[in-house]
Amino acid sequence: xxAKEKSSQVKQRDLSKIIRPIFGALVAAYVLWRLYFVFIVxxxxxxxxxxxxxxxxxxxxxxYSLIAIGYTLVYGILLMINFAHGEVMMFxxxxxxxxxxxxKAIRVPTAANPDLVFADxxxxxxxxxxxxxxxxxxxxVGYYLEKIAYRPLRKAPRLIPLISAIGASFVLQNISLLLxxxxxxxxxxxxxxxxxxxxxxxxxxxxxxxxxxxxxxLILSVVLMLGLLYLVRNTRLGKSMRAVALDKDTAxxxxxxxxxTISSTFLISGALAGAAGVMxxxxxxxxxxxxxxxxxxxAFTAAVLGGIGNIPGAMMGGMLLGLVESIGxxxxxxxxxxxxxIAFAILxxxxxxxxxxxxxxxxxxxxV
Amino acid sequence: xxxxxARTIIQKGLLFALILILIMAIGFHEIAAALVxxxxxxxxxxxxxxxxxFMMYFFGLxxxxxxxxxxxxxxxxxxxxxxxxxxxxxxxxxxxxxxILLVYLVQNGIDIRxxxxxxxxxxxxYFLFDRGQAGLLQHLVYFVIFGGLGSLLHVIRDTEAAxxxxxxxxxxxxxxxxxIDNALPPFVRKYGKYLVLxxxxxxxxxxxxxxGSYINFVLGLVGLYVIAGIxxxxxxxxxxxxxxxxxxxxxxxxxxxxxxxxxxxxxxLLGFWPSLIVAMIMAVLAGLVLGLPxxxxxxDYLAIVTLGFGEIIRILLKSDLLSNLTGGPxxxxxxxxxxxxxxxxxxxxxxxxxxxxxxxxxxxxYNRLQESxxxxxxxxxxxxxxxxxxxxxxxxxxxxxxxxxGAAFAGLVGGISAARNQFxxxxxxxxLVSMNVLSIVIVGGVNSVPGIILGxxxxxxxxxxxxxxxxxxxxxxxxxxIVMMIMRPNGLWPATRPLYEHMDDPESTKKTSGKESxxx
Lengths: 368, 520
Known about the structure:
- Chain A is mainly alpha-helical.
- Helix content of chain A is 72%, strand content 4%.
- Chain B has 2 domains: 2-167, no CATH class; 213-519, ABC transporter involved in vitamin B12 uptake, BtuC (Orthogonal Bundle).
- Chain B has helices at residues 2-25, 28-39, 52-70, 77-108, 121-127, 133-158, 160-183, 186-211, 213-238, 246-261, 272-294, 299-318, 323-326, 348-371, 373-383, 385-390, 395-421, 431-444, 449-465, 473-487, 506-519, and strands at residues 332-333, 339-340, 343-344, 423-424.
- In chain B, strand 2 and strand 3 form a beta hairpin.
- Chain B is globular.
- The chains are: A mainly alpha (368), B mainly alpha (520).
């Protein structure tokens, strides 16, 4: 090797090493400058604004967390990005919508109110029913998705299932478009859970709304996540899921039914996505055929943020992403239109600086 | 074992019944019947239902296919046949149950179109062959008869005698092709390639003048997608990096062309050709900016990051932040067309010529690249990054180079299409465009130029011709992607390995091409 070649190689190595810090410094400088500008120079927002943004961020973060868990579970076991996971959630949203429509249509007349409908007579029951059906439908969609689009490709190289997943995402989106028409629909919440209603807390002499749907979302998602953690750590199914994630062939030798375990993983992640979907519907209200796309991508971001394959990581990543997305545009003083850009920018930055995520990846070594 | 078999048979029947019900629920049975009627060259006006007999033909065809697919794989002749018939009967029974629901809805005039759009009374009774309960029975009978026929044919095909006949026929075809090849005079064999090229060139000069503007428009679109497909193939197929944000590079090219060459918002009017070069350079720069920090990423991470990058570009173009610079969500209108030697050169025929030249150039560049040292470096990276690094391939440099060259082609396509449409806007560069290009490469055949051309024709040209399927295009796209991945992961027209590997050892080529089919 001549001296010239050597020096050129050194230069190249230096280049790639230099670029990342420069890029990072630029981003950090920009963020700090904007924060300085908004908080110290302008300082036009009181604490009530930040508290309400914080609440909104926690709620959306809870939804992201639930979806992100689905990504993480599937990625941990099959090492593929389940690109259609957002669409699984979308079917959960639609299923919940139909259940609520049905409960609004069934009448249970009483003496006092002859027009009373089921949803208002038994709000708790109808919400529970909505969640059960939404989770069930989404779980079934996830289950058949795996069976039809992914299982035949289990032995294929890694990009092939990803492309199949993209195809599945197209298929699911368009099936719902053709089934339910492109019309934008609104969730018909029971009156007790109407959107926008909530407790008022007074901060800085301004009332801040804490919506009922939001609190409900937050509590339910925490319950579901704890349940999942228990399932993965303490049950037989969880044990076999961990074993299959570690090494499919050896797990099969130890008498674990790999196909069944993978199917149950898809069922579980689908059910969580369905729950997230119903929460999304109850809280945000709108249903359309691409409702799952952005939450899906963002939840994947959340999963990467927390470290893919890592369940607590996905939960934390989802919350973090929700908070940043909600507070970010205001804190940086940029237009609210650009909140999606913030999410994608976080994704890119995480992958550049710390691809293993905040809490670290949990993947078997051979796979990485 | 028996129990297990019964379960799979019922599951198969259930699957086919559910697919048929889904077809009805999305209203596709009308389109399918219309397509069948087209096969019998009976034209159906759009918006009106074809005759009922075409629905019957379609139903019979579907039952036949389900019978073919559900026929048993092992066991004796009659066992296999029985499995197929039972599965079809199960499917028929489930469809009949669904029919009962339809009959109920039709007879009571219940309208659920607000929730499920396809369930109009006309559509439902069309599914029942316009016969109400009798249609239900007919469905059942069709499933048993045509399903049985389908499985019978499948089982017969599986018998040894039939297999032998098929083998013989395919061998005969192959050998006759070789015979024809050998019979050609040496002159033709040597210069045949150039002869074909010349004929193509002449045809490409004459044909656009004869076709009329509609065909020119469709073929121009196909040509642009061919260029984009080849460009993306350099990134995905040669160097093995899955990029899902290819439309971002289009956007770079299209907006460079638009901003430099439209009266609003800047009125620079640089002219088409210099703008085209700027468009390519901008796309390359975008590729480098994206690629430099990301080269070390795992394949699927790269896919998602580039997807995010594409979306960022689109959202930024759409946002108020840049609307003074880029026209915001309204896009940019009245982009000027090219001139040649001072004369306007932007009729549809002229654009056709530009696209032909661009396609030819792209294919030439691609072929030269593929067979060069660079192309071999790319392929080696794709096959095994660590091994190729060990043999002295600079991974970062070559991956970046692939990204830059691929982006340059995207810039070219973006520039030409912006000028051709005289318009570009943020929604011309959505994720869907990236997916379309990717599908063309995958469906056509990774690393195969004829495959990509075929893919562009199938995915962009065919839907233009088959107007009936318009609403179902994306759905069919998705199904095609999944089916291709399962059945033919190497594409419609799979690539053959580059020539240099055939040179000394024909045995080894067989092995490597076999290996490639696993890895592609």
